[in-house]
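During the reporting period the student researcher (J.K.) took over the structure-prediction task from the postdoctoral fellow and processed the backlog of single-chain submissions. One of the processed entries is reproduced below for the supervisory committee.
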Amino acid sequence: MSTDLVPVKNNLKNLSDAAQLNKMVCCKIQSIPNFQTLKGDVELILYACNILENYHVDVNAKKIDKKELVVNAFVELFSLNEAEKVILNNTIQFLFDHKKIKQVKKVVVLGNKFLNWFMKKLS
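J.K. obtained the following C-alpha cells:
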C-alpha cells in the first residue's frame, strides 16, 4: 500500500498547505538573481505578498495566515532577527492597508489558461 493514497486532513492539511506555500514563495524569491541584496526591499515584500494572494490551489485561505507565511519565508531566506520581523510585519500591514496587495482578476487567469491550452493544441 502506498502512503500517497492516505489523505491528509484538517490541521495536517493546513500545515501541509502552509509548508507547500512557504516552499513555493522561497523558490520564487530564490530565482531572482542576487536576491540576498534585497533583504528589506519593499518591492520584494510586495512581490511575495502578491504571490501568496494569487496562488490558486485548493487551500482554504481563511485558515492560513498569509502575513505569517511571508514572514516565515523571509526568516528562512534572510535569517531575520526580531527587530527585522517587526519591520517586515509593519511593511506588510502598510501594503495591505493601502491596497497594494492585489489579486489578479479571474478573467485574466482564465484567459491565460485558455491561451496556454490553445497554444498546446496548435503544437
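The committee noted the following: DSSP finds five helices and no strands in the chain.
J.K. will present the remaining backlog at the next meeting.
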